[in-house]
Amino acid sequence: MVADAAFTFDRFAPPHLDDPYPLCRDAREQAGVFHADAFDVWVVIRHDDVRDVLTDPARFSSAYLIRTPHTPPPASQRSCRKDIPRSGSCSTRTRPSTPGPAAW
C-alpha cells in the first residue's frame, strides 16, 4: 500500500534521532511504501515489499539514474593537482630531466 500525503517521514527530526523505532513502526503500519519528501526518495519498509523490490530488478531499478556525463566537467572542476609536473593529461607525470631513480 502506498501512503497518502498525510504521512510524513523525517528520520533525522529530533525525536527520531534518539529512538527511531516508533517512527519505523508507524511507517510499517500506516504506509509500507511512501515518498519521503525530506530526502526526495521512495521508502519501502515492510519485509515482504522489500523482498519483492530486491528480487524484481525488471520492475524496480534505479539504473536510469546512473549515467555517464556526455560532456566533461570544466577544467576548473577537474581534480588535478597543480603542484605535480604533468605532460598532457592530468594523469601523466613527466620524467625527471636527469638520469637516476624515478622520483615517484
- In the sheet with the most strands, the strands line up as 1-2
Radius of gyration: 25 Å
* Oligomer kind: single chain
Q: Pick out the low-confidence regions.
A: none
- Count, helices: 3
**First-residue to last-residue Cα separation:** 59 Å
In short:
The protein has 104 residues and is α+β, with helices and mostly antiparallel strands.
Structural account:
The chain is an alpha+beta fold and 104 residues long. It has a domain at 14-59. The chain is built from three helices and two strands, in the order ααββα. The chain has helices at residues 14-18, 21-30, 47-54, and strands at residues 33-36, 41-44. A two-stranded antiparallel sheet has the order 1-2. A hairpin with a 4-residue loop joins β1 and β2 (41-44). The radius of gyration is 25 Å and the shape is flat.
